Amino acid sequence: MKKTAQAPANIAFIKYWGKADEELRLPLNSSISMNLSEAYTVTTVEFSANLEHDEIRLLGGEFSEQEIERIVKALNFIRNKAHVTYFAHVVTKNTFPKGTGAAASASGFAALSVAAFAALGIELSEKELSIFARLGSGSACRSIPDGFVQWDKGKDSDTSYAYSLYPHDYWDLRDILIIVNNDMKKVSTTEGQKGVKTSPLWHDRVRGVPEKIEKIKASLKEKNFQTFGELVEEDCLDMHHVMQTQTPPLVYWNNKTRAIMDAVVDWRKKGLPVYFTIDAGPNVHLICEAKDEKTVMERVKSVPGILQVMVNKPAVGARLISAHLF
Ligand code: DP6
Fold first, then answer.
1. pLDDT tens-digit profile of 119-166?
2. Nearest CA to ligand 1 atom 7
3. For residues 264 and 274, is the Cβ–Cβ distance under 8 A?
4. CA-to-CA distance for 27 and 84, rounded, in angstroms?
5. Structure confidence at residue 222 (pLDDT)
6. 61 C-alpha vs ligand 1 centroid, how far in Å?
7. From the CB of 212, is ligand 1 less than 6 Å away?
8. Which of the residues 14, 94, 173, 268 could staple to 32 if both were Cys, CB 3.0 to 4.6 A apart?
9. pLDDT reported for residue 98
10. Hey, is 316 helix, strand or coil?
């Protein structure tokens, strides 16, 4: 049976950086995110007795050997659960560049999990799908549920999964993703996180996350954009300070990243409510309310060196679609 899934990338407002268990991808802290409407992956999967190995293809790009290995590993988890040995034909495409801190592994492993289980005729709950997506990439578990999402770090594999706090139409926010660099990041998030405990700052950040999560959930409940935005920016900076003080240091920002961060602070001083957040790459996500999208976009256009801008709304989670890629 051939099945196709579409899954959104997600942007974390309270971020995941560091694992308590590497193999199971259990995080050191819980996190909060929003699915993105325009940044997504579509993946078609078909298992077949006629294949001698997994055939995995990325349309419009190429997977590295390590990426292929990681996808095969995720397929093995799925085959184990389903008690099948068939190899799979997997074709996938992204609406945005992978490896640039725009969360292609999140949407990718979420889409793979949904399509693969459906292709095997196995119906899993949202919680189980979130757990399998997590085994491929931690943040992928947050791309399964709808809209605004919490990933509880849990105590073991069965308790570490994501669920929806609010549906996608709860709050009309915008995530304006500014791409300043399309190159693959030099250090992957999986590799980078291995060094988290070499930072003298990691422990304090992790200890502070539960309180931040309570505060950001309160701001979501009240739709208090200023408090929400301040918490988003604060946690982004906290995570990057951890990254930058690891050995070896991980500096994902470049001059354009910094210029945009400075510009956002300046626009805010002049009365425009917009905040930034950045994942493991130089590209910047601007968070604002729908009413301010036009003004933010006008300001963004005046910044030199931007390659691409993608305006995201909050989105539904991973789901099956009927248009197959092969
Ligand atoms: C900076 O989920 O990509 O985007 O579990 O090793 O695949 P692995 O890591 P990944 O890490 C995401 C890190 C981040 C923050 C976040 O999305 O929470």
1. 999 999 999 999 999 999 999 999 999 999 999 999 999 999 999 999
2. 137
3. yes
4. 29
5. 98
6. 21
7. no
8. 14
9. 59
10. coil
Report the separation in Å between the CA atom of 189 and the middle of ligand 1, taken as the mean of its atom positions. Answer: 6
Ligand 1 lined by 216 (C-beta under 6 Å): no
Q: Ligand 1 centroid vs 206 CA: distance in angstroms? A: 15
Q: What is the C-alpha to C-alpha distance for residues 30 and 150, in angstroms, rounded to an integer?
A: 7
Tell me, using a 6 A CB cutoff, whether residue 12 lines ligand 1: yes
CA atoms within 13 A on the CB side of 9: 25
Question: Could you tell which of 132, 143, 189 is best to mutate to test the pocket of ligand 1, judged by most ligand atoms within 8 Å of the CB?
Answer: 189
Is the C-alpha dihedral spanning 296, 301, 304, 306 positive or negative? positive
Which pLDDT belongs to residue 258?
Answer: 96
- CA–CA gap between residue 16 and residue 103 (Å, rounded): 12
CA of 49 to the centre of ligand 1 (A): 34
Q: In whole angstroms, give the CA distance from residue 171 to residue 238.
A: 25
CB 16 near ligand 1, within 6 Å? yes
Q: Is the CB of 219 inside a 6 Å radius of any atom of ligand 1?
A: no
* CA 267 to ligand 1 centroid distance, Å: 29
pLDDT digits (tens, 9 = 90+) for 175-192: 999 999 877 667 889 999
Name the CA dihedral angle for 244, 242, 296, 97, rounded to a multiple of 10 degrees. 70
User: Interior CA angle at 13 toward 275 and 192, to 5°?
Assistant: 110
Q: What is the CA radius of gyration of the chain?
A: 19
- In whole angstroms, what is the distance from residue 21 CA to residue 280 CA? 20
pTM over 0.85: yes
Cα separations in angstroms, 15 against 126, 178, 239: 21, 19, 7
